[in-house]
Amino acid sequence: MTHEHSNLMNTKEQEILDQATEKLALLTGVTIKTLRAGVAQPDKESDAEIEICSAKNKVHFAVEIKNELRNKKLLPVQRQTGAANLLVAQYIPKPLKQELKSINYNYLDAAGNCFIQTPELFIYINDQQVTETRVPAEGKLWKTAGLKFLFAILTQPELLNYPYRQIAEEADIALGNVGGLLGELKKEGYVLDGGQNKGLFIGHKGRLINRWAEAYRATLRPKILAGNFRFIDKDQVHHWDQLDTNQFKWGGENAGALLTNFLHPEKFTIYTREPKTVLMKKLRLVPDLNGNIEILEQFWKDKEPGIHTPTVPALLAYAELITSFDSRNQETAERIKMEYID
After folding, report:
1. Does the CA dihedral 226-228-231-237 come out positive or negative?
2. Are 83 and 63 in contact (CB under 8 A)?
3. d(CA 142, CA 146)
4. What is the SS3 string spanning 149-190?
5. Are strands 268-272 and 293-297 parallel, antiparallel or unpaired?
6. Which InterPro entries match (predicted)?
């Protein structure tokens, strides 16, 4: 297999592409050549182009690369370039693979599992064992501090032109992290410089939001989850919206219901700065590993500390709903994005 590397591609994306294509070649005997890897502007072209050569045919693919993909709503757009489209990912959950196959969406994961169908080529592999391993992104941008930093600037874009100390305070991260995170964001093409009049601003915002949503679900959310619980009074699930929210905020399906009046929540998500024992007493909760109530630590600072809002910021509600497997949650997420984010 031939690779012609470009320094424009993220190193970890190159690793994902190499691992997946090498495994596919080993399993099938095809030859795979990397024609191009990396582009300067994330929204303009595919991440790479490859050629898969079987005994009879050669097929040119435009490739989009992801660490993991959890939701059909976050699928890369199929590009009309003359080449076939192929999604290459480190990890894709089984239910999503089935969905992708049902809509004839070509994919390949790091274990070699794939659905690739063109007029000249058909490969379907679904028996390779894969573990949910995630390749960490280069640097700190897609780790905990970076995700908090991204959340701050996505909800308050003006921060990009503020002193580093103020950015650190708003994002609740160490001051020493800000310069490096901002540098990584510029390198990936998500922060652009508009000169003296406009200053720094976010570029390719929609793609950045979706990348943040995926990374939040995979990396930050598990670290701030305090546990699962249930109401002692089972009837409380029917009156959840009447609870006093002074010590917490509703996230997930509850936030979706309050922001759009479209969703009836089945899972209850609470973000708080209080110890969980305080909320357990206040809301009359008991621990339950299978409970439908989650308590998570609030990781951001309120934009207006003196004004209480009953829901988390719209960006966080969107992220939680769009990365779920429930189609109604995803539809609610799109409504939130349209009304509060776009």
Report:
1. positive
2. no
3. 5
4. HHHHHHHCHHHHHCCHHHHHHHHCCCHHHHHHHHHHHHHCCC
5. parallel
6. AbiEi_2
The residues that bridge with 107 in the sheet, in sequence order, are 87, 115
pTM score above 0.90: no
CB atoms within 10 A of CB 242: 8
89-130: pLDDT as tens digits: 988 888 888 888 988 899 999 899 999 999 999 999 988 876
**Is residue 254 helix, strand or coil?**
helix
Residue 42's nearest CA partner among 213, 205, 195, 217 is: 205
Domain span including residue 70: 11-125
Which residue, 65, 90, 125, sits at the end of a domain? 125
Determine the average pLDDT of the residues in 174-191: 91
Look at residue 5 and tell me if it is in a domain. Answer: no
Rounded to an integer, what distance in angstroms lies between the CA atom of residue 174 and that of residue 167?
10
Contacts by 107-116, CB closer than 8 A, 24 or more apart? 108/20, 108/21, 108/24, 109/20, 110/16, 110/19, 110/20, 110/23, 111/23, 112/20, 112/23, 112/24, 112/26, 112/27, 114/24, 116/52, 116/86
Nearest alpha carbon to residue 77 among 217, 207, 191, 213: 207
Q: Using an 8 Å Cβ cutoff, are 252 and 269 in contact?
A: yes
How many domains are there within the chain? Answer: 3
Place of tokens 């609470």: 270
